[in-house]
TrEMBL record:
A biological-process GO annotation: L-methionine salvage from methylthioadenosine
Species assigned in the record: Streptosporangium saharense
Entry's family note: Belongs to the EIF-2B alpha/beta/delta subunits family. MtnA subfamily.
Pfam families assigned to the protein according to its UniProt record, in alphabetical order: IF-2B
Site description Transition state stabilizer, residues in chain: 143
Domain of life: Bacteria
EC numbers, comma separated: 5.3.1.23
Pathway: Amino-acid biosynthesis; L-methionine biosynthesis via salvage pathway; L-methionine from S-methyl-5-thio-alpha-D-ribose 1-phosphate: step 1/6
Gene name of this polypeptide: mtnA
Keywords carried by this UniProt record: Amino-acid biosynthesis, Isomerase, Methionine biosynthesis
Record InterPro entries: IF-2B-related, IF-M1Pi, IF_2B-like_C, Initiation_fac_2B_a/b/d, M1Pi_N, NagB/RpiA_transferase-like
Protein name according to UniProt: Methylthioribose-1-phosphate isomerase
Residues noted as binding substrate in the record, renumbered to the chain: 44-46, 78, 182, 233-234
Active site: 223 (proton donor)
Length: 326
């Protein structure tokens, strides 16, 4: 199954707001519809956002009076995942060739993502074995970094999938990932479809479970990796990295080269998306907090590079713990 694709002149994508109750396909035919889908996380996850952005530029070139202005709206729909801006800019680079050239480039980004995720799965699974010295492993992860966050297979969850296919996965421990529950809704759904053994844990249990030896490695994805290796990812990643270091558990970031951002020198320069307070004050439309309560809702955090054991891309393994930088 593909999470996002170009079908008969429009973008088709799995509506991630409806999962796990329903697996609905959305057909997106305009840039404004796509901006809305990105903002409400109907399509989400850095690699999928990249493909969406590039396909969105094709829609802009075909239908919008000012495609560059429409592409700018798309580019700004979410600020943290660099893949969105990167893919929009790359597709705009083919503007002179018209709609066909832009679409061809967007489809290349889609195909490259499929290949990159396969390569990261293999390399990441090999690395986990090397770092842990174990034939069978327990992996902790946060958010959703599976096929739903990419096109076919994912990044960190793609490694978990490869480990499972190799018979090397004892258990995946997935953090539920408040406030929007990408772990409980999406990662659990994907692990179930894979037939992989897993348990969900509350986000706050992650570091303690690492201290008690429940996982052999932590694998996360990334939304943007700065030039020094500092890594922006779903809120909760930093706490896991601190817990992993204290427990002596490898902390591995799995992301395609397109998530590396050499133009951002350190994590301090990464813009962190602040989302609507309502996402924290309730859950899936049910109010939890008393009237008048306020909330802070950073969608991501930044893990400093000295807490990162390794970064796995489709081309290489970078070892920040050994002084290497992307
Ligand atoms: O807010 P989201 O659900 O888009 O956040 C997604 C993440 O933080 C993922 O870990 C990241 O984009 C990598 S997806 C392979």
């Amino acid at each position: 199954m593909r999470t996002i694709d170009w079908v008969d002149g429009a973008i088709e994508l799995v509506d991630q707001t409806a999962l796990p109750d329903r697996c609905d396909l959305l057909r997106i035919g305009t840039v404004d519809e796509l901006v809305g889908a990105i903002r409400r996380l109907a399509v989400r996850g850095a690699p999928a956002l990249g493909v969406a952005g590039a396909l969105g530029v094709a829609l802009a070139v075909r239908d919008e009076p000012d495609p560059v202005k429409a592409a700018a709206r798309l580019r700004a729909a979410r600020p943290t995942a660099v893949n969105l801006a990167w893919a929009v800019d790359a597709a705009l680079g083919h503007l002179d060739g018209g709609f066909e050239a832009v679409l061809a480039h967007a489809l290349r980004i889609r195909d490259d993502d499929i290949a990159a995720c396969r390569a990261m799965g293999e390399r990441g699974a090999d690395l986990v074995r090397e770092l842990t010295g174990r034939d069978r492993v327990r992996i902790m992860t946060v958010c959703n970094t599976g096929g739903l966050a990419a096109v076919e297979r994912g990044t960190a969850l793609g490694v978990v999938q490869t480990l499972h296919e190799r018979g090397q996965l004892t258990e995946a421990l997935a953090l539920e990932t408040r406030p929007l529950l990408q772990g409980a809704r999406l990662t659990a759904w994907e692990l179930g479809r894979m037939g992989a053994p897993y348990r969900l844990v509350a986000d706050s249990a992650g570091p303690f479970l690492l201290a008690r030896g429940y996982a052999d490695a932590v694998l996360i994805g990334a939304d943007r990796i700065a030039a020094d290796g500092d890594t922006a990812n779903k809120i909760g990643s930093y706490a896991l990295a601190l817990g992993a270091q204290r427990a002596g558990v490898p902390f591995v970031v799995v992301a395609p080269e397109s998530t590396l951002d050499p133009a951002t020198p350190t994590g301090a320069a990464i813009e962190i998306e602040e989302r609507d307070e309502e996402e924290v004050l309730g859950v899936r439309g049910v109010r939890l907090a008393p009237e008048g309560a306020r909330a802070a809702n950073p969608a991501f955090d930044v893990t400093p590079h000295d807490l990162v054991t390794a970064i796995v891309t489709e081309r290489r393994v970078i070892r920040p713990d050994l002084g290497e930088r992307p």
